[in-house]
Design brief:
With 189 residues, this protein is α/β, with parallel strands linked by helices. The chain has one domain (3-176): P-loop containing nucleotide triphosphate hydrolases (Rossmann fold). Helix content is 54%, strand content 14%. The chain has helices at 15-26, 33-47, 58-80, 92-95, 100-108, 121-131, 137-141, 143-153, 170-181, and strands at 3-8, 29-32, 85-88, 111-118, 161-164. A five-stranded parallel β-sheet has the order 2-3-1-4-5, sandwiched between helices. The longest helix is centred in the middle third of the chain and has 23 residues, at 58-80.
Length: 189
């Protein structure tokens, strides 16, 4: 049975960085929501004469959210037959389902690990400012409103491991987590 690692949390907590590092360490297939789907989203939003940096409006969520997640899980399904899979995304709606990890394990015949990344709101804002992405302009301009949405959703209801990326060393945590899961490091990871 292969492992499905899902890194979740709000933008800026380190999902892409942490999940890429774990994928290298375990030799798993890496599926990054932004790196692998942003060009399609931008093209679709441009075609619709909508702001290509939008990731928070109802138009984005109604048009792109479900197809992106369906595509991510189709890629995971195809790769779990022969490899561990590491993916990342906010997964806000899914985290509120208490039996989400059980459903995934049954659907994909995999050992499912949800890693919920967090960090202090001040540090989060600094990280988002530092990365300088156009799609973050709206978040930063309406920071309190943006953060309120995440405070309201609260801690995930599904089984998960919570990691504060502002406190925990990435390398030490990945080493410890892979050992705990009984997974050998591969490819010099």
């Amino acid at each position: 049975m292969h492992n499905l690692f899902i890194f979740a949390g709000q933008p800026g907590v380190g999902k892409s960085t942490w999940s890429a590092r774990l994928a290298r360490a375990c030799g798993g297939c890496f599926i990054d929501i932004d790196a692998h789907f942003s060009h399609v989203v931008e093209a679709g939003l441009n075609l619709a004469d909508h702001d290509q940096n939008d990731r928070d409006s109802d138009i984005f969520k109604q048009t792109f959210r479900d197809p992106i997640y369906l595509s991510m899980f189709a890629l995971a399904r195809d790769n779990l037959t022969h490899s561990d899979v590491v993916m990342n995304g906010p997964f806000t709606r899914e985290l509120s389902q208490p039996d989400w990890t059980t459903q995934l394990a049954r659907t994909y015949s995999a050992s499912v690990h949800v890693i919920y990344l967090t960090c202090d709101a001040t540090e989060l804002r600094e990280r988002i400012q530092k990365r300088g992405l156009s799609r973050d302009i709206g978040k930063l301009a309406n920071w309190d409103h943006y953060q309120q949405r995440f405070r309201q959703s609260g801690e995930p209801l599904c089984k998960h491991t919570r990691v504060d990326t502002g406190i925990v060393s990435q390398e030490e945590w990945i080493t410890m987590y892979l050992e705990r899961c009984g997974i050998e490091r591969k490819n010099g990871g």
